[in-house]
């Protein structure tokens, strides 16, 4: 009886540890494939985990899997419209898919929820740049640097556009 109890306890602790690792990997992994797999396991257990769809969307976008990134961002927004990062991720996915107007709209929505979200400004700036709205792009890259002074991408973009921070 005691051996069975120890075995059951070991299985329970391993399961709890696996859940904790999945949550950590889904949130903070430096390997996007690991992140996707961990988030997928969480989503299988809880199909309403908006945060897991949001994080998996980011990982898909980073791996140039735009359609999957868009689908997950859509699902995250459907589950929780108040998550600015989900709107930012959907903007990034739309940029990847060359839907620049859609990306601008999503970045705007993220900014309504969180006016200080630098990633929304950088995404909108890039989308503006792609549609030839140079002055708007410059303004958004500058705003990005006001919010996050170390954002090298925004500095490089301003130089590329012939402007200064």
Descriptive report:
By secondary structure, the protein is mainly alpha-helical. It has a domain at 2-115: Serine Threonine Protein Phosphatase 5, Tetratricopeptide repeat. The protein contains 9 helices and no strands. It has helices spanning 2-28, 32-45, 50-62, 66-79, 84-96, 100-113, 118-130, 134-147, 152-160. Helix 4 runs antiparallel to helix 5. It is elongated, with a radius of gyration of 19 Å.
Brief sketch in words of this structure:
Helix content is 79%, strand content 0%. It has nine helices and no strands.
Features:
165 residues; Serine Threonine Protein Phosphatase 5, Tetratricopeptide repeat
Chain-wise SSE layout:
Blueprint: H1 2-28, H2 32-45, H3 50-62, H4 66-79, H5 84-96, H6 100-113, H7 118-130, H8 134-147, H9 152-160
Helix pairs in contact: 1-2, 2-3, 3-4, 3-5, 4-5, 5-6, 5-7, 6-7, 7-8, 8-9
Mind describing the biggest β-sheet? none
Order of helices and strands: HHHHHHHHH
> What's the number of helices?
9
Helix content: over 70%
Estimate the global geometry from the Cα principal axes.
elongated
Output mean pLDDT: 90
CATH topology of the domain at 2-115: Serine Threonine Protein Phosphatase 5, Tetratricopeptide repeat
Radius of gyration: 19 Å
CATH class of the domain at 2-115: Mainly Alpha
Based on secondary structure, the structural category is mainly alpha
Count of distinct strands: 0
CATH architecture assignment name of the domain at 2-115: Alpha Horseshoe
Going by CATH, the homologous superfamily of the domain at 2-115 would be Tetratricopeptide repeat domain
Q: Give the uncertain stretches in residue-range form.
A: 4-18
Distance between the termini: 70 Å
As a percent range, the share of strand residues is under 5%
